[in-house]
Every structure is written in structure tokens, then in C-alpha cells.
Amino acid sequence: MQKYYNTKVDSRPREARIPRMADLFVAYSTYRGFVALRDTSDGCIFVQEVCKMINKNFETDDINTILTKAMDKIAIEFEANLGDEKAKVAPELTSTLRLRFGLNLVSAVPSYN
């Protein structure tokens, strides 16, 4: 059973509390019911494309934008032949991030000139 609390603003300062499941970012190579493609020599197509997009865009884009670009490329360019039918890949992202999450660590390091 879930409990719901009435909230109100009062004059007492309250300690900020962040939800336990906040700031999670999960990427799946495929959505339930779809196929995940794996190249027999290079491995998982999803991981390969995400790595390429990170290397190409880490200085300018946040992780959500990078993964969205990789997912778009995968959806358009890749498919598998399964006998008489073709299968497309449908990667999935699940996020509870509250802020943009960037990977450009160089700009985050203080300069000691």
C-alpha cells in the first residue's frame, strides 16, 4: 500500500531529500519483444554505436542526447534477416535523471595557471 502525504509550505527550513531512485540512467540494447543484433566479429551493434557516438559527441552533448543519436542511427541503418522476414532493432532508454549528465571531464577540471 502506498502512502500519500499532504504537503504544505511553512516557515521552517526543511532538509532537501532526493528520491531513492533518482538519477538513474539505464540503456537497453533492445525493447522487450524485439531483437538485439550482434555482429559475429565486433559484438553488440548497440554497444558499438553508443561507443562511436560517445567518442564523436562527448565534448558537446549530454548522455541522453548521445544515446538518442545512437538509437536513431541503429533504428534507421540496421536490420537482421530472419529467414523470410527482416527484424529491426528498437533500443530503449529509462531515465530518472534530474539534471543533464555530460561526459566532458576536461572542462570540469579546474585550471591552476
Primary descriptors:
alpha+beta; Alpha-Beta Plaits; about 110 residues; about 25% helix; two-stranded antiparallel sheet
General description of the model:
- The protein has a domain at 37-95: Caspase-like (Alpha-Beta Plaits, 2-Layer Sandwich).
- The model has no long low-confidence stretch (mean pLDDT 81).
- The protein is elongated, with a radius of gyration of 20 Å.
- Strand 2 (38-39) and strand 3 form a beta hairpin.
- The chain has helices spanning 45-57, 63-77; strands spanning 25-28, 38-39, 43-44, 79-82, 85-88, 92-95.
- The strands form 3 sheets. The protein has a two-stranded antiparallel ribbon with strand order 1-6. Strands 2-3 form a two-stranded antiparallel ribbon. A two-stranded antiparallel ribbon has the order 4-5.
- The chain contains 2 helices and 6 strands, in the order βββααβββ.
- The protein has 113 residues and is α+β, with helices and mostly antiparallel strands.
The CATH architecture assignment of the domain at 37-95 turns out to be 2-Layer Sandwich
- Overall, the morphology is elongated
Strand arrangement across the biggest beta sheet:
1-6
Number of DSSP helices? 2
Kindly report how far apart the N and C termini lie.
57 Å
For the residues shown, what is the average pLDDT? 81
Could you give a short account of the major beta sheet?
Answer: 2 strands, antiparallel
| Poorly predicted spans | none
Any chance you could write out the topology, listing elements then pairs?
Elements: E1 25-28, E2 38-39, E3 43-44, H1 45-57, H2 63-77, E4 79-82, E5 85-88, E6 92-95
Antiparallel strand pairs: 1-6, 2-3, 4-5
Helix pairs in contact: 1-2
